[in-house]
């Protein structure tokens, strides 16, 4: 948060801060013994981040701080995948051992393209939601 503090002291008037997605849902860790630990760490991080943002906003009332809640967005996509045109919450490709094995013919219907990365469709959804936040923020950012 030191970098954000520095930005606010210098010139920044509108800042979007992104929280952590649900790493425990990534195919690389689903079903592993690390998944509950990642869930705990992610929830603690996101809670602390929200508290810090609230504190910063009190100290810098002339700056618009917006939290982009990617955690809730990804969790919602995972829980309501068919609403988003997603047919699988697994990975479409296997990239283990530094090789590429395509495991599906329609990756745009998957959340994850491989064990660690979202598909283009999910990235577009993230971008669309970030744009909505920008357009509706209390700052002076306007739609094109």
UniProtKB/TrEMBL annotation:
Q: Which InterPro entries match?
A: GDSL, GDSL_lipolytic_enzyme, SGNH_hydro_sf
Report the leader peptide range: none
* Keyword NAD carried by entry: no
Provide a Gene Ontology MF annotation, just one. hydrolase activity, acting on ester bonds
Which UniProt keyword terms apply here?
Signal
Task: Tell me the superkingdom of the source.
Answer: Eukaryota
- Return any one Pfam family short name: Lipase_GDSL
Asked whether the keyword Signal is assigned, the reply is yes
Gene3D superfamilies xref list: SGNH hydrolase
Instruction: Write down what this protein is called.
Output: Uncharacterized protein
């Amino acid at each position: 948060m030191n970098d954000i503090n520095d930005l606010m002291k210098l010139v920044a008037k509108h800042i979007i801060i992104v929280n952590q997605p649900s790493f425990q849902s990534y195919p690389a860790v689903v079903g592993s013994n690390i998944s509950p630990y990642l869930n705990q760490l992610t929830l603690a991080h996101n809670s602390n981040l929200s508290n810090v943002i609230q504190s910063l906003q009190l100290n810098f009332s002339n700056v618009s701080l917006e939290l982009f809640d990617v955690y809730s967005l990804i969790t919602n996509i995972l829980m309501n995948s068919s609403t988003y045109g997603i047919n699988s919450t697994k990975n479409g490709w296997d990239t283990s051992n530094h090789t590429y094995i395509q495991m599906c013919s329609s990756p745009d219907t998957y959340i994850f393209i491989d064990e660690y990365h979202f598909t283009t469709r999910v990235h577009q959804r993230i971008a669309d939601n970030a744009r909505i936040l920008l357009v509706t923020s209390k700052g002076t950012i306007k739609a094109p």
